[in-house]
User: Fold these one by one.
Assistant:
Number 1:
Amino acid sequence: MPIERTAGLTAGVATMAVVLAMLASPIARQPWLLPVSLAAVVGGGGILAQACRGRWWALNLLVGLLTVGISLNFRDRPIGEVGLDLQNGSKLVVWSAVFGVAMIRLPAIGGLLRRFPMLCLLLYGAVAMASSAWSPTPAYSFGCAFGLTAYLLFAAVVGEAMPTPEIIRPLTWWLGAFVLLSAISLPVLPDIALAPPDPLEPIRRLQGLSGQPNQLGHQMASVILVMVVAAARRVTGPVRLAAIGLGAAVLLLATQSRSSILAVAGALLITLLRRRPLLWSAFLLLAVALALAAPDHGSDLLARVSRSGDKSEVMTLTGRTDIWSCILGKIAERPFFGYGFNATEAVMTKECWTEASGAAFNAHSMILQCLFGVGLVGSLPLFLFFGWCFHQFLANPVLERDLCFWAQMISGLVEVDTFGGTPTMFTLIFLLLLCAVVRR
């Protein structure tokens, strides 16, 4: 039997097994789940078969499903609840499908996966999956780590099969559709699109269909970065890129996600300064001027930046400093291998509480989240990858890789970001652009 047919049968059986597991779980009480699942398996089978053959249109449909389809949130999950439900069950089915495609295309992507940055991320993913053996929530830890590995392998498939412009161009359409859906959600579904007020944040921030304002902010930041790359590479018309980018910027501001705003601005500034060294002098003068003005106007500025009008909100980074203190104490107890990938929510909701956000469901820091999950040993491959990205930024700057690297490093100071938990829209975008660069 040809290898593609054998691998396709194996991937189909694996995907069906995941669907059957969902049907056997409590979420199967939904009467429409069985016909929808069967239709998805039958209809998706043709798309997967063509993706296994490296057809661009099929790969782009899967990219759209990963970036838009499973980025939409349709549940209200209590903090600390990490069991299988329709939301994460759907993600697991999709991850299994694209993992199967990658396994079929493994001979074609083997050379790309042997490159140093890819090996680092593969090893990190392998350790993350292995950490489920000592995680308090083994299925959840394995599922999240499996999703991260599936994204990496699928990005390699896309990067090997398609030239960079053909990756970026359809991506702009998918992201444009996501921006439109997020914008429409406000007038159509205001109760869902606006987050309920927080004890320290009395205003209702925009969360769209993403389930959380910072999550939507992170997604809109991803859209802006892709539009900048698309404009620089001239892969499509500037008017459409400007419209999508402007819409994403407006939504980003409406989320009031300060970390995402700083990540976009910081990434753009750093990559610009790398390419225009003479601008460093102007930037340093501006920094000195701000430093001199800070003693006189610092308190007023902090109060204006805060959402509640209280400068302590900014000084504590909305309670993050309390979370970090608690997280560091737990890391010190298991410094080498951690508690299991993305097990923060299961452990910290019982042991770490803050006035700002109640239970700490993640470390609000990518580095601390990784150290908590897989320890120093498990995080080493990821740190080596970061070192490679920084070296390449200095020695061989490439816009798409550098923008994504700096955006995730800046955002990762106060958020879990790309590699610390459940893979996100930005995870896939970063890996797609990374594979396109590494393949060159």
Number 2:
Amino acid sequence: MTRLHSVFLLSALIGAAGCGSDETPRQPAAEPGVDRAVAPEPAGKAEEVKRPRPVSTRDGRFTRIPPDRIDTERREAAESFARRYEQSRAQGTFAILGDEATEGMRTSLTVQKQKEAQQEIEAAFGTFEALAFAEAWKVNASPGSTIYRFRATFTEGRPEIRVVHDERGRVSGFWIKPWRDSLDPPRPRKLPESQVNQALRDASLEFARSYLERRTAGVFEPLGRQATEEMRTALTPEVQQQTHAELQARFGEFQSLDYVEAYRLESVPGNTVFRFRGTFGKGRPEVRVTRNADGLVSGFWIKPWRQDLD
């Protein structure tokens, strides 16, 4: 649905990849990757959330699976995976993923990534104690994927632990995040111009314009200190060069950039989205810059313009 630290590591990676895609910058359905296991959601301490109101069987992009139609064997496998992972993390041993996970997950959720997330997860939720199954959902856009939601008990809160299986029953996604009844993240809130940080807006405009002008000139440089470490790691000169041809073919040469509006991401406290309308030789796409609570660039996209923020 931020650093959440202020933005998840994967969010930065997807943001960078989004430079050459018009897909919504969220976790891919087939290979959701890692979210909470990389960094805990920046919503502070997890609040005690009472379990569910009667819910609708459909929740936006997801469909709830009736209890009597849940694959018990796979549910138990998902629970075993989550419990084993959390217990090993709490003991400082850190699990090495095997054939129970997709290649994408094994690549993403390395022992090193787990170690990097350890301190932040404990700061947000404390120490893991117990786990209880809550519900299962299907991903409407990817019918082969199944989401298993567990309500965990930590010493400082009761967050969600979410395990996603692909059609073969392999773990393709894993999150630790504050519990919310709805799977769909809170909608971003459009900021009145009086509430927009003008300095950050102008800095974001300059960041995007400078990046696009360098790209047009064939110059691909490392991002500076105004970007998060994750963004600097994700949007390397090599990645910039790889996406250049695709963006050039789709939108043409960059010409100019105009500010349009700003949004606050309610799911990621402190994060602000600045939307710009680009003028290119072949169209007028959106150029989007996200800033975290520290004012650092934590996301960057170039995508076809849509009136509503997606």
Number 3:
Amino acid sequence: MVLLLLGNTPKRGPYHRLVAKAVKWLRKRMGETLAALAVTLVERVESGGALPSRAEVTDLLTCGPEGDLLKEVIDLPGRVI
């Protein structure tokens, strides 16, 4: 989610390969609720949809260091989600 919010997807952006690897890893875990949520949000953004809202990523904010980083990116000045 952090990379998405910073303008990267599996198809574009300087970190597109990293995002692609992450999505591949998440797809192998689609039975897990948070993995399924993350994949759904990535696919929506890739297809031209809106970035996730804060309400949509709330559950992801509790995921250890990754959740902490997501909080930091969401709270960047000027970021509205």
Number 4:
Amino acid sequence: MAEILHFPPSEAQTPEEFINETRDMMAGEDISSVIIVAKNSNGEVTTGYYQCDFSTRLELSGHIQCDIIDQMIRANPERYRVE
């Protein structure tokens, strides 16, 4: 898996602010593919893909899952220490 680079925590107050903030941070990167997932208040999920075939969608979703696991471990390191 590729190295996961985290954007700084967002100060956004709305989804639109978050998207605009993220877009601005990505502007200096050499971005080749993007996936977007959003959940609305009634539980519906919207997905969007830019330059993603099936394998790229799987690859990027795998990175999101790894990022979540990494954040869980960082939040609870004592739980995962082997003694």
